[in-house]
Amino acid sequence: MARESLGFEITELRLGLPGEPKSLVSTNKNEKKRMFSEIDGNGDNEKKSNTGGNLKTTESKAQVVGWPPVCSYRKKNSMNEATKMYVKVSMDGAPFLRKIDLGMHKGYSELALALEKLFGCYGMGEALKDPENCEHVPIYEDKEGDWMLVGDVPWEMFMESCKRLRIMKRSDAWQIERTYIEIDEIKEKNV
Amino acid sequence: MKKAAYSFPEEVLEHVFSFIISDKDRSSISLVCKSWYEIERWCRRKVFVGNCYAVSPPILIKRFPELRSVTLKGKPHFADFNLVPEGWGGFACPWIRAMAGAYPWLEEIRLKRMVVSDESLEIIAKSFRNFKVLVLSSCEGFTTEGLAAIAANCRNLRELDLRESEVEDLSGRWLSDFPDSYTSLESLNISCLGNEVNLLALERLVSRCPNLKTLRLNRAVPLDRLPNLLRGAPQLAELGTGAYTSEMRPDVFSNLAEAFAGCKQLKTLSGFWDVLPSYLPAVYPICSQLISLNLSYATVQSPELIKLVSLCEKLQKLWVLDYIEDDGLEVLAASCKDLRELRVFPSDPFGLEPNVALTEQGLVSVSEGCPKLQSVLYFCRQMSNAALNTIARNRPNLTRFRLCIIEPRSPDYLTLQPLDDGFGAIVEHCKDLRRLSLSGLLTDRVFEYIGTYGKKLEMLSVAFAGDSDLGLHHVLSGCDNLRKLEIRDCPFGDKALLANAAKLETMRSLWMSSCSVSFGACKVLGQKMPRLNVEVMDESGPPDSRPESSPVEKLYVYRTVAGPRLDMPGFVWTMDDDSALRIS
């Protein structure tokens, strides 16, 4: 499972919910551009391509933006641990790691800005506008030790499960994907 | 102009008007005749602007030249749930600048959901010599530097309330900027601040202000400093604790208990972050005098919490987490016969499985046991028409009913039917219902009930409900007193909106997101109704880059005398005559 998620997703900032059929290239350019802001809570990802009427949703409630309607202030202040949620952030090529307080940010777009400031990697902001071409890919390690692409799950869920962040170079990501593809090919040969 | 011999001199009228305080009544007075309008506007001292874009600073100042108190609200309510993108608007600065010039004697500014900068706070601090009250509710955009300016300059400040605001907390030292000679503080709410304030400064401030009635601390104030603070202000009526936890030491406990017991006027308690249940009994001695208790940050399940509640026989308002469970609510129902307001918040809103034994039964018990219950906000995971029916019949005196069944479109868990009849019973029996929030599986029928019975309804919140435009039409055509309507993820579209365009001018605002309203319809609405601002929000690009029939992401319509606003960010478009020409 972990390997699969690292496979395509690491290179593809696709728009879609877990469980939906994966496609490498999203047909709607506009959808992709909005990825961060939508999942941040500034858009409603399930209604985008519907012209209305069809209300069948397959997402669990955790995927729905702004639902249940708990005030963001209350959400932020209800955390059991101290409100400071510092996690380590490593950036490929940087000589040392940094720490960032996830609790200080309201969503993915704020996080992207904060990461930009920390590392001066302006790729983060660009990722919001043009994910295909940005140089860096943010990934995070979740509670189960898997490396996940930042942006798939609602912000609150991300805050709770993120243990550390890594800003990966896109070129590295391709290498990893190639490695896994090679591993797969070897496995298939040996079957 | 000839004045009738028997008409009152202006001074007498003015004196009479000074007894009329409600905005509605003031408005009625001003409509009687021109001279009453004139007299009234000169002696109006307090104004409430429910939507800062419905009017502009110059218009306000021109009509009311002698205000002492202004209240402004900015962003739509759904901004609380992250549905309004950053940069949308609600900027306080233009208002504060204008008021600084026009109202040198302004005493009170209350802002809700607005963006307030440090610069604005500095202007306030320097411009109003008699400034007394600053309330920033769910605001953002300022730092502790702005607060320092207020503290240092506002010699007559009585109230500083930052409830639920997002403050960039650069340093706790701002509190020390209150001069030693400053003693007029009556109310301080810093519960939203993230960092420690200078505790010594706080203690000194508290003890030198003899009229301090309300003190709401932030989480960072440790429990072992609370007794000192309380001893410095035994006249406190409202207290919000800081973190309610500490190493368990008997001296800390007894110190705390003694300090609480010394606050004979304490009527309201809140705070209780990180609560350690074994410290709750310190509060027991004053429970019998409490009328309001906010335990909604007490993220702990414990019998001490329920015991606490059971001792508060005078309790009128309780905010609590669903850790209280049905059992606890039954105790509440048995003990607190004066209860007027209950809010039960979810401890685990995103969990897929229930984590607590809280069901519809808890609310039913309270509706049975608390005859004065008027206001309900309840998060739960299951509901039935039968329960809603019972609640409605038990409590026809409900005025606010907000129910959130956590899973969208949940049916009646017993019959698997929609919850139309249950909510229908609520609107039918609760004839004074002013505010209603719906959830669960709902068809157009519930809206038919609401349109038929919800005659006093002023605010309605709808999500994931309805089948067709008919639902929206029922509400817009039936609810005579509707002021605010907010809708998300419902299949409501053009027909109902356009057919009821005139209704929108009688309301403060309409919000529709993820519905089926087309861009074309928004344009038509904007053209047809010049006194409405029809704002379309779309973060994926200009709506005219897509076909006219494609639905808009978000629509916010509000009446205004100020015309289209000029401070819109790139993702908001106003549909007015000009834009229609531009686009086509």
Automatic annotation (TrEMBL), chain A:
<protein>
    <recommendedName>
        <fullName>Auxin-induced protein</fullName>
    </recommendedName>
</protein>
<keyword id="KW-0678">Repressor</keyword>
<keyword id="KW-0804">Transcription</keyword>
<comment type="subunit">
    <text>Homodimers and heterodimers.</text>
</comment>
<dbReference type="InterPro" id="IPR053793">
    <property type="entry name" value="PB1-like"/>
</dbReference>
<keyword id="KW-0539">Nucleus</keyword>
<dbReference type="InterPro" id="IPR033389">
    <property type="entry name" value="AUX/IAA_dom"/>
</dbReference>
<dbReference type="GO" id="GO:0005634">
    <property type="term" value="C:nucleus"/>
</dbReference>
<feature type="domain" description="PB1">
    <location>
        <begin position="84"/>
        <end position="172"/>
    </location>
</feature>
<comment type="similarity">
    <text>Belongs to the Aux/IAA family.</text>
</comment>
<comment type="function">
    <text>Aux/IAA proteins are short-lived transcriptional factors that function as repressors of early auxin response genes at low auxin concentrations. Repression is thought to result from the interaction with auxin response factors (ARFs), proteins that bind to the auxin-responsive promoter element (AuxRE). Formation of heterodimers with ARF proteins may alter their ability to modulate early auxin response genes expression.</text>
</comment>
<feature type="region of interest" description="Disordered">
    <location>
        <begin position="18"/>
        <end position="59"/>
    </location>
</feature>
<keyword id="KW-0805">Transcription regulation</keyword>
<feature type="compositionally biased region" description="Polar residues">
    <location>
        <begin position="50"/>
        <end position="59"/>
    </location>
</feature>
<dbReference type="InterPro" id="IPR003311">
    <property type="entry name" value="AUX_IAA"/>
</dbReference>
<dbReference type="Pfam" id="PF02309">
    <property type="entry name" value="AUX_IAA"/>
</dbReference>
<keyword id="KW-0927">Auxin signaling pathway</keyword>
<dbReference type="GO" id="GO:0009734">
    <property type="term" value="P:auxin-activated signaling pathway"/>
</dbReference>
<dbReference type="GO" id="GO:0006355">
    <property type="term" value="P:regulation of DNA-templated transcription"/>
</dbReference>
TrEMBL record, chain B:
<feature type="domain" description="Transport inhibitor response 1">
    <location>
        <begin position="65"/>
        <end position="111"/>
    </location>
</feature>
<dbReference type="GO" id="GO:0010011">
    <property type="term" value="F:auxin binding"/>
</dbReference>
<comment type="pathway">
    <text>Protein modification; protein ubiquitination.</text>
</comment>
<dbReference type="InterPro" id="IPR041101">
    <property type="entry name" value="Transp_inhibit"/>
</dbReference>
<feature type="domain" description="COI1 F-box">
    <location>
        <begin position="6"/>
        <end position="45"/>
    </location>
</feature>
<keyword id="KW-0927">Auxin signaling pathway</keyword>
<dbReference type="Pfam" id="PF18791">
    <property type="entry name" value="Transp_inhibit"/>
</dbReference>
<dbReference type="GO" id="GO:0005634">
    <property type="term" value="C:nucleus"/>
</dbReference>
<keyword id="KW-0539">Nucleus</keyword>
<keyword id="KW-0833">Ubl conjugation pathway</keyword>
<dbReference type="InterPro" id="IPR041567">
    <property type="entry name" value="COI1_F-box"/>
</dbReference>
<dbReference type="GO" id="GO:0010152">
    <property type="term" value="P:pollen maturation"/>
</dbReference>
<keyword id="KW-0217">Developmental protein</keyword>
<dbReference type="InterPro" id="IPR001611">
    <property type="entry name" value="Leu-rich_rpt"/>
</dbReference>
<dbReference type="GO" id="GO:0009734">
    <property type="term" value="P:auxin-activated signaling pathway"/>
</dbReference>
<dbReference type="Pfam" id="PF18511">
    <property type="entry name" value="F-box_5"/>
</dbReference>
<dbReference type="GO" id="GO:0019005">
    <property type="term" value="C:SCF ubiquitin ligase complex"/>
</dbReference>
<protein>
    <recommendedName>
        <fullName>F-box domain-containing protein</fullName>
    </recommendedName>
</protein>
<dbReference type="Pfam" id="PF13516">
    <property type="entry name" value="LRR_6"/>
</dbReference>
<dbReference type="GO" id="GO:0031146">
    <property type="term" value="P:SCF-dependent proteasomal ubiquitin-dependent protein catabolic process"/>
</dbReference>
<dbReference type="InterPro" id="IPR032675">
    <property type="entry name" value="LRR_dom_sf"/>
</dbReference>
<dbReference type="InterPro" id="IPR036047">
    <property type="entry name" value="F-box-like_dom_sf"/>
</dbReference>
